[in-house]
Design goal:
Elements: E1 5-13, H1 21-34, E2 35-42, H2 46-55, E3 60-63, H3 74-85, E4 90-94, H4 102-112, E5 117-118, E6 121-124, H5 129-144, E7 151-155, H6 156-162, H7 172-182, E8 187-188, E9 194-197, H8 202-207, H9 209-215, H10 220-238, H11 242-261, H12 271-275, H13 277-298, E10 301-303, E11 306-308, H14 315-334, H15 342-359
Parallel strand pairs: 1-2, 1-4, 2-3, 5-8, 6-9
Antiparallel strand pairs: 4-7, 5-7, 10-11
Helix pairs in contact: 5-11, 5-13, 7-14, 9-13, 10-13, 14-15
């Protein structure tokens, strides 16, 4: 039997019921054999938490989110709690529907030897109709760069250096990626590192449409394209000029197919998802307007019982915050103090300045 990989696996979780408990327990059993450290940060209600504690295998550290990490995006509280507890330098963060194999974990571990953050590529392990539909989004992202997965790998030392990341945002994975890059961290998105993911139920898929469209406020050029789709299509139809619409649909299929073929993707992504790209784009065009209406009416997007105003902070804003934090560190070390405790106080301020820069409220 091979030795466990030197990885901490952090799984933030909040169950609404126990339907997935048995299957998830079996996956955790496999993880315990593959990873040196497995942490489940469970924000489920008490009865579900206790049932999970009984179901999870020995070797899993099962903890509630740290109240000090509380934020609007509950998943981030779980991630931050888990990373703080991680025993290994290399940490994998994964949603509860992600299903790694040992080979994929080993490759993430190897890549973290060279990079500060790794973005694998999720691929649905089953293909009901809505998974094929949503895969069109993945293919379009791949055609122009890389997708945004439900799992990341990160070095614990880099995470400590950046002082964590903001949890009051909707697009939390992009926020973490940008925060690492703003600190000078090296990131990589290997297009051929495929990690299986279980598709959501149909009702959950529909419930995510507007929230996922809201994410694109963090990518303004993309959001502008989505907002233009409905009015431009309406004008073309009103003028009885279907040709522009047909050409745009064909371009969407071609882009998606390009994304499908990159990184050997034709072996794992269905061709039907390329054909569904125009349907996904039309859906995103409508949902972008619904997201905009929520932003105007509520000041943000609904997430559970909360409203989250910010999709993710811009790289420029994050760099500014990092620079401001560094300046505070220099002042804290250099400014003389009259009292005898000056060395200890200066050291404390210097040590905490990075964390303060991230925990302070950020503007949208």
């Amino acid at each position: 039997m091979s030795r466990p990989l030197p990885l901490s696996y952090v799984l933030p979780l909040r169950m609404a019921d126990d339907a997935q408990r048995v299957e998830l327990a079996a996956y955790l059993q496999r993880l315990v054999g593959w990873c040196a450290d497995v942490i489940v940060v469970d924000g489920s209600r008490r009865d579900l938490f206790d049932g999970n504690a009984r179901a999870w295998p020995a070797g899993v550290r099962h903890v509630p989110p740290d109240p000090a990490q509380r934020c609007l995006m509950g998943k981030v509280a779980g991630v931050r709690t888990g990373i703080e507890l991680a025993r290994c330098e290399h940490v994998v963060i994964a949603d509860d529907d992600v299903r790694y194999g040992r080979g994929e974990l080993a490759r993430v571990d190897a890549l973290l030897g060279l990079h500060d953050l790794v973005r694998p590529q999720n691929v649905f392990d089953a293909l009901p109709w809505h998974a094929r539909w949503d895969t069109a989004r993945t293919l379009l992202n791949r055609s122009l760069g890389a997708d945004y997965p439900g799992t990341l790998g990160i070095r614990r030392s880099r995470y400590d250096a950046i002082g964590g990341y903001d949890g009051d945002v909707m697009f939390e994975n992009l926020e973490l990626i940008r925060t690492v890059e703003a600190d000078g961290g090296r990131t990589i998105a290997p297009l051929d590192l495929y990690v299986p993911r279980r598709p959501p139920a149909g009702a959950h898929f529909w419930g995510q449409r507007v929230r996922q469209a809201y994410d694109d406020f963090a990518l303004p050029a993309r959001m502008a394209c989505w907002l233009a789709i409905v009015p431009l299509s309406a004008v073309a139809v009103a003028r009885r000029r279907p040709r522009p619409v047909a050409l745009a649909a064909a371009a969407g299929v071609a882009l998606a197919e390009r994304g499908r073929r990159r990184g050997g993707g034709a072996a794992v992504f269905p061709a039907s998802s390329s054909l569904l790209a125009p349907v996904w784009v039309a859906e995103r065009g409508v949902c972008a307007w619904l997201a905009l209406l929520q932003r105007i009416r509520l000041g943000g997007v609904r997430y559970g019982d909360s409203v989250i105003p910010t999709a993710a902070h811009t790289p420029r804003e994050l760099r500014r915050r990092r620079a401001a934090g560094a300046a505070r560190t220099v002042r804290a070390v250099r400014e003389p103090r009259d009292d005898a405790s000056a060395p200890a106080v200066a050291a404390t301020e210097a040590q905490s300045s990075t964390a303060a820069a991230r925990s302070a409220p950020l503007s949208a």
